Amino acid sequence: MHFCWGDNSFGQLGVKAARRGKAGQVRCQPGASLGSRDLLQAACGERHSLLLLSDGTVWSCGSNDCGQLGRKNTRNCEWPAPIQALKTQEVVLVSCGKEHSLAVCKTGRVFSWGSGSEGQLGIKEFKKQNFIPKEILDLSSVKIIQVSCGLYHSIALAQDGKVFSWGKNHYGQLGLKENVSLQTRPQWVKSLNGIPMAQVAAGGDHSFALSLSGTPYGWGRNNVGQLALSGKNAPEQIHKPCSIDELKSLHVTYISCGDEHTAVLTQDGKVFTFGSNNSGQLGRRQVSKKRGPQTVDSAHVFSQIACGSHHTLAYAYTTGQVVSFGCGSQSHLNSLLQPGSLEQNFSISNLISLSDYMLKVLPWDSPHQEALSIFLLLPECPLMHKPENWESLVVPFAKAVCEINDQSSEVLEKCWESLEESSFNSLIQMLKRSICLQMDCQPGRVKNHCNSKALLGMLKKLHRVSEISIIGESYPECGGVRKEFFHCVFKEMIQPEYEMFVYSENSSLMWFPTNPKFNKKRYFLFGVLYGLSIASFNVANLPFPLALYKKLLDQKPSLEDLQELSPELDVDLIPNGSSILVDKTNKEDFVSRCINYIFNTSVKKIYKEFQTGFYKVCTKEILNLFHPEELKVVTTGNPDYDWKVFEENSKYFKGYDKSHPTIVMFWEAFHRLSLEKKKDFLLFLTGSDRLQAQDIQNRGINFIHPESAREDELPIVHTCFHNLYLPPYSTMERVEEVLQIAINNNRGFAL
């Protein structure tokens, strides 16, 4: 059931004459019966109304002077009747101007009819009367999802986020160029390009658009402050959409426009109004000189608003009441209406589908920071974090981020820098989770490597945001400082004297102690450090047995692992075990219990802390791609050094070549060094005494001849790039001397 009230002089309320009051006034009463169909939406013009029913048909009533009812051979119609020309269409939205009408179909097609004297129908002509709805062909190439009619102009919002306008432009209400007074064809409002819009609203001679992030943009007439632009220098009209600063902090969720006033609904259920108050349509009890937005003084929490020409309605969902204020000369007002049969049956008319709509039109080429804010908002949506949506939502999102231009990328990265830690981490976890799910595709399903490329590409951008710079360093941190840090920290922590780990007397391998000196938190932090080392592409000389990497990959240690560690046991594996001899009958049980005790039972608590810390940084699903042997090599580096290949991979710059006397002497002196001395020089050169698995086959030294260097100067190294600035020494003795000095000073960055 629906209700109506107000002026019914032309039958625009759709109730019979017997129900009218004086001068055509009607008090609140039920509207015409619609049979078994529900009323989805009602739209009112100055003297006509449209009713959209649940079956997609449109009915009309009221004045038909200009054809605004969509029917021929009738002047006025006081009883709703269907518009036959739209019978084959499934209409989802209607809107009324003063004397014209618009309808949006489910397919996105738009039909218009009524007065076109100002071009407001968008059909390329200024025809006063148009009785039959016509499709606006200029909009046929886009899918329209929303329309709004002003007095003599119209606005439409397309699925791809573009806003179109047409009709009268005397006050700039179309948002186009100032020299355009009338427009008979829909024109793209280019000033809003790239800004994702949630709603458009047209007033008498002004217009609004609301972005998805809640920023209102207004344009058109502002003679009484209907754009919320106030102050001494406030313009009376603007031709280009501009963000309304006074509304930004209100968290606006919906906008409705009257002839000369505007109402906005906020996230917390408040209503703010601004513009003309000559009929009380702003809902203010006292006359105020302030022209800007002011809240409607009410204890209600509102969920829906609507503006007529000179009045305003607001629905309070907590009480079920409709509050109205403004022009009451024709019974627009029935203050605090609460008809017993009014139900809280309000539904959302437009739902945004992330996969079908939003992600396909993300503003990858827009310079607007407002437009780019959608890249910050979407990761906050819970749907983006559901595992089943990784391919349909997260991948298209990552692709859009990777496709934005350099200027937009720079703006977005600055926004990422300002994110709270929790939001930034949530964004990273969303991408990491998607990568893991990509690798875990069902058997028989082809993996799309373009998906991985997009996800990794976005992670690379986020990694760039989190990179640090060292004060006083002319180059960005490229790994040298990190290598030095991990080398120094790990070297101290694994020293036998530190007593954090124990070493087997029969091997050089270390393991977790059965009676730890430190609390378990220390092992959690060690796991975090180890994970960070791997995540930083660093290798660390941590002499753990292969059993550790098996446990990290949820594999059971074996007898070979027990032999590798060669521990000595002095505990009973079973009650009174020291008095039981091991023989053929129980040896398997004995070995099994030994393995379980050494690798599991005796170190259960501190190992669990280590593993928790390790996987706080590393992603287990990714590491599961490795075999234990591979994971060990990746994390601890290549122990096999082919120094001849290392020499062959070296490069020479600024006057040096491999036949230069200084270079020849350098390699001769280097190859005479012991293995440990060579590794110490590697530490001087790279910040680590180990290289990654394949680095020894691909890396060498970049020899650079200093521009002005003397023989008494020492070599300088840039560990990040393996650059060695080697002065041109003339004797072998001097080369051997500086090589030893470098080895002795292979820590820090002071040399």
Automatic annotation (TrEMBL):
CDD domains, from UniProt? HECTc (cd00078)
The family database entries (Gene3D superfamilies) matched by this protein are listed as: Hect, E3 ligase catalytic domain (3.30.2160.10), Hect, E3 ligase catalytic domains (3.90.1750.10), Regulator of chromosome condensation 1/beta-lactamase-inhibitor protein II (2.130.10.30)
Q: Which residues form a coiled coil?
A: none
Q: Which InterPro entries match?
A: HECT_dom (IPR000569), Hect_E3_ubiquitin_ligase (IPR035983), RCC1-like_dom (IPR058923), RCC1/BLIP-II (IPR009091), Reg_chr_condens (IPR000408), Ub-ligase/GTPase-reg (IPR051709)
Query: RCC repeat positions in this chain?
Result: 1-55, 56-107, 108-160, 161-213, 214-268, 269-318
SMART domains recorded: HECTc
For this protein, the parts annotated as crossing the membrane are: none
Domain HECT intervals = 459-751
Name used for this protein in its record: HECT and RLD domain containing E3 ubiquitin protein ligase family member 6
Annotated organism of origin: Vombatus ursinus (Common wombat)
